[in-house]
Write a structure and sequence with these properties.
Layout lengths: L1 E5 L6 H12 L3 E3 L1 H4 L5 H8 L1 H18 L3 E4 L8 H10 E7 L12 H5 L9 H18 L2 E4 L5 H12 L1
Parallel strand pairs: 1-3, 1-4, 2-3, 4-5
Helix pairs in contact: 1-8, 3-4, 4-5
Length: 167
């Protein structure tokens, strides 16, 4: 079983994915680091453009799904934007949407320096980022088998909820 985590940037896909994988004794894979190992996704987007990044992301997703049978997979925030990726996810994974409000994630003052490093969040324009988030919500809903809302919950409560899904 491949349990894939989807959701907007900085919602905790990698953090919760790693924690769940550790507790279940499964491999953890962060798709962002499968695209061009050693190169941050933001750097790929800055140097090659988002479209090239998305093509490489699709290929990386395909490779992971061909190679793995049991793992926890953290997707990039934009991975499900392509229909081809949604189809791959539906065929090979159970998908958990980590649903965090923008106030808890991207606009959280504790994460401001991390958000500033992401090309799609650069500048912190609330209206533009909110619009991007709103455009992605229906995509996340369409691919998710489960939704885990994080607002008002401790990390341990979120992990426990995901562990129930994984069983």
């Amino acid at each position: 079983m491949i349990l894939a985590f989807t959701g907007f940037m900085m919602c905790g896909k990698s953090t919760y994915g790693y924690a769940v994988a550790t507790r279940l004794g499964l491999p953890f894979i962060d798709l962002d680091f499968e695209i061009e190992p050693g190169i941050a996704p933001g750097e790929i987007i800055r140097t090659k453009g988002e479209e090239v990044f998305r093509q490489e992301e699709t290929e990386a997703l395909r490779c992971v799904l061909e190679r793995e049978s049991d793992c926890i997979l953290a997707l990039g925030g934009g991975t499900p934007l392509r229909e081809e990726n949604r189809e791959l996810l539906r065929r090979h994974c159970r998908v958990v949407w980590i649903k965090a409000s923008l106030e808890q994630s991207v606009f959280n003052p504790e994460w401001a320096s991390l958000a500033a490093q992401r090309p799609l969040l650069a500048g912190g324009d609330r209206e533009r980022i909110t619009s991007l988030w709103e455009s992605r919500v229906p995509v996340y809903e369409s691919v998710a088998d489960y939704t885990v809302e994080t607002d008002g919950k401790t990390p341990e409560e979120i992990i426990s909820e995901i562990l129930c899904i994984a069983q």
